[in-house]
Amino acid sequence: MFEKILIANRGEIACRIIRTARKMGIRTVAVYSDADRDALHVAMADEAIHIGAAPSRDSYLQFDKVINAALKTGAQAIHPGYGFLSENAAFCGACKKNNITFIGPPIGAIEAMGSKSAAKTIMEAAGVPLVPGYHGADQDSDILRRASDEMGYPVLLKAAAGGGGKGMRQVWSAAEFDEALAAAKRESMNAFGDDTMLVEKYLTQPRHVEIQVFCDQHKNAVYLFERDCSVQRRHQKVIEEAPAPGMTPALREAMGQAAIQAAQAIEYEGAGTVEFLLDSDGSFYFMEMNTRLQVEHPVTEMITGQDLVEWQLRVADGEPLPLEQSQLTISGHAFEARIYAEDPDNDFLPVTGTLSFVQTPEASAHVRVDTGVRQGDEVSVFYDPMIAKLIVWDEDRGRALGRLSRALSEYRISGTTTNIDFLYNLATCQPFREADLDTGFIEKHHAAIFHDTARDRESDLPLAALYLLLRQSQKVGAGSSPAVESSRRDVNSPWNLNNAWRSVEDNIHTLGIVLHETVYPLEVEQKQFGTATRYIIHHGGNTVTAQGVLEGNALRAEFDGYQFNATVAEHNDSFTLYTADSALTFKQASPDLGDTDHHDTAGGLLAPMNGTMVALLVAPGASVQKGDALLVMEAMKMEHTIRAPRDGHVVSFYYQAGELVDGGAELLEFSASE
Ligand code: ADP
Predict the structure, then answer these.
(1) CATH number belonging to the domain at 132-201, selected among 3.30.2310.20, 3.30.1490.20, 2.40.40.20, 3.40.50.970
(2) Which CATH architecture has domain 604-672?
(3) pTM to 2 decimals?
(4) Distances (CA, A) of 164 to 21, 187, 235, 238, 340
């Protein structure tokens, strides 16, 4: 077995690989960019080598630097993780040339699957079923359009070099074709340096079911069953599970055999995933093969009890597969939820920020957290915004789902917007419980997932008030300022709070709390019962009696005799309260209560995220109609189009293509027509 390996990756996957290597007694070398000097994967590795500036093309994609790092440290093998260099045949070749083992398939297999078009040609020849479509070499846009017209809409344009849902566009009618093709090509060129496209019939209600395969250097091949990854946004997976609900043994066997056939057609070695679309009538179609470890491999590990990274290392070292097909069995059910720095309420756009507070659910035999970040780390524009993967297991789907929602409710992050609440709503909605899955799940069940939370959010206002009252009484108790000293007699008096308090009548005071730009006035009466202070809080026609204990971040609250725990994280001028089913950020109103600005930022003419200007699509002065595309921005390799809010014209653009833009910056001056 190798004595030392280098991990050519970062984040959670680098950490996850290091854990297995350490368990097997293998020493590890990390590589890092300027942005990752203090990252967790660097701290976990035995050695680490700096390989360049923060942008991945200057560091993690610089394969000469990665190879030199391996040579310098004497690493015998390189694990590429996923993304970055993992499916790069030239890198695999460079490893070979330098006598370093690439922990992955042989070059030929990567090349064969590197292009979705070429892969489809090979699979067609091997008799694996394909989605109808065009995957030819002739890329003339007329030919692509004609293929789509003939197939009938909707169609899906896909980047042949694609991955991660990038360079992909649905086209619902011939009229949309040209704009969609241009966007898909641009996104693909930007992400992969190649804009070859293929067209597929767009199936409207398929499931994404993929098969984990493993092959060794001795021509043995097994499949480690399936994962259902139908729950997606932007064609990217959000929650995955294994086994697939409703899977029959016969279909599993058929899909497993087709996957092995696909792997053997390209003389595969190591871990690979064959992705299929499964139609409602039980037919399945090959989509692509990923020639690497997948993000969602942990759900397979949880139901098979195997460590797939250990399998990879053994196979790369020439050992036979650890188990034969007949020795592999499925036990229980597992879910993985991907926790992202992104804003589900803003089209899931990635966001950046410093993770000022991170509290993960406790790990156990049922709960696993794969992460590469710690409190204080930054989610930057340079890399994927995934913060962690939350993986749970239990004996059956229902119980595992219970574990998932509980663990999500215990996952607490501040400093950046995350999708945790969205995942919680998704995991607890009735259609997901019933496993009514297809790739349109999120759009189809939008109402159930994005249920109107404004009302239940307001119901947390008394809790926010209680926190402010307890915090203030602690500060007063600590007696730091002379003003406070002078009022020590009456330490819990609301008069000792800051001037956002306003007396309404004797002993009733108004406390202003800001939630989503709206100021809510709450009336509070304070009563002393021996040493205990109780607050009678009036809000929206309701009255509750509250008391509580605040210790650090932990708040034990009691409302009308009902006690529960919450966690609080303070930020510069706001605070977040986490309860079992929500995470809400509040502010205490400034002294001029009720006078908060109500800027309308919904016009869409502000940059929705930190990113780069890609293209200006109209000329200043030219008239445009509401909804027309004005410009395209890009962040984390995803494009976002800014559209005209009304009929009118652009007076001027403030950024040129290629320039960096801060999130929230004004992008252009727009003049609406009368
Ligand atoms: P990527 O490599 O970018 O992840 P895939 O080819 O794996 O792209 O497809 C990603 C997702 O897009 C699939 O899981 C599925 O939801 C959707 N998809 C892909 N092809 C089709 C199709 N022909 N019809 C409907 N949905 C599709």
Answers:
(1) 3.30.1490.20
(2) Beta Barrel (2.40)
(3) 0.80
(4) 27, 12, 8, 12, 14
